[in-house]
């Protein structure tokens, strides 16, 4: 059985333990989804989305570790790019075989029941990347379009 990690707001943890991880609607497509990454030996790759998600204003994220059957259908790929429809076990293999794994995500089209949740914990809150996986050492775009609604964006705005 494949194991995955879903990052959730610490405030929602009690409801997640009780009801499971409820699939939320995607903005553009109208489909429902649960985003996750596989549990790997590399802590950074398993929790890489934490800093990027913190940009939305959530103070503390918790990790929800859950288990699904190897044949569970999922989509895997890099964010904002085409995803591959595959199984949960194959998604774990793709993450392991990928050179860096940065920016990859696994999408479940159904909710995760509470019975599948193995544990919850609070990981280090500075793990991961911001803006995009290769952004380290590069200045973010300062245009008003790229910085709309971002926290502390006034410092970066160029216009």
Q: What is the CA–CA distance across the termini?
A: 51 Å
What's the gyration radius in Å?
A: 16 Å
Largest sheet: 8 strands, antiparallel
**What structural category do the secondary elements indicate?**
alpha+beta
Strand content: 25-35%
Mean pLDDT: 83
DSSP summary, beta strand count: 8
How many helices?
4
Low-confidence stretches: none
Q: What string, H for helix and E for strand, traces the elements in order?
A: EHEEHHEEEHEE
Task: Describe, in plain words, how this protein is organized in 3D.
The model has no long low-confidence stretch (mean pLDDT 83). It is globular and about 45 Å long. It has four helices and eight strands; from the N terminus they run E-H-E-E-H-H-E-E-E-H-E-E. The termini are far apart. The protein has one domain. It is of the alpha+beta class.
Which secondary structure elements does this structure contain, and how are they paired or packed?
Layout: E1 2-9, H1 13-19, E2 24-25, E3 32-38, H2 43-46, H3 50-54, E4 61-68, E5 73-78, E6 84-87, H4 88-97, E7 104-108, E8 117-121
Antiparallel strand pairs: 1-3, 1-4, 2-3, 3-7, 4-8, 5-6, 5-7
